Amino acid sequence: MTRLFLLYMKRQDKTNFWDWTFRVLAAAIVIAVCIIAHERDIQTPPAGVNRAFSEMYDGATEVEWEKHLNGYNVEFIYDRHEMEAQFSKKGIWKSTRKEIAVNEVPDEVMKSIAEQNTGSWQIDDVYLHTAPQGNKEYYRIELDKEMTGREKTLCILPNGTVMKM
Length: 165
Prior knowledge:
There is one protein chain. The chain is of the alpha+beta class. It has 3 domains: 2-39; 43-88, no CATH class; 101-165, Nuclear Transport Factor 2, Chain: A (Roll). It is 33% helix and 38% strand. The protein has 3 helices and 8 strands. Strands 1-2-3-4-5-6-7-8 form an 8-stranded antiparallel β-sheet. Strand 4 (81-87) and strand 5 (93-100) form a beta hairpin. The longest helix is centred in the first third of the chain and has 37 residues, at 2-38. The radius of gyration is 25 Å and the shape is flat.
């Protein structure tokens, strides 16, 4: 009887091992497919998207496209600035993010940053975001706190008004 039980247990261990292995492999395949389907580097987007980009940013260099589920993302250099723009599948411009230097930030925005108790925080990156909806434009200020590694982000309109996130 004991011998029969041991044989049964050995078979169960092998069955559990292969069952577990199959489940992990299946999960890995599903995750990989989702990642690939969600975001893909591409060489050239459809003609309409490429045309819209070229009209807005003629002369852009180091252009890199990614395809997303809802459209296209393009990273590029334009007028000596690192930029990123989003376009719909039909080539409609959605938004642009432009990395800028601190000395390019308007005085009203800098005053607003100072009023946010950012004394021990250092400005890490500054981006100017623009979007066609309502001619919307704002500054995204990324701050780091010295010695702690903490990060903070402020979004401020050109007139100095802090946006709620």
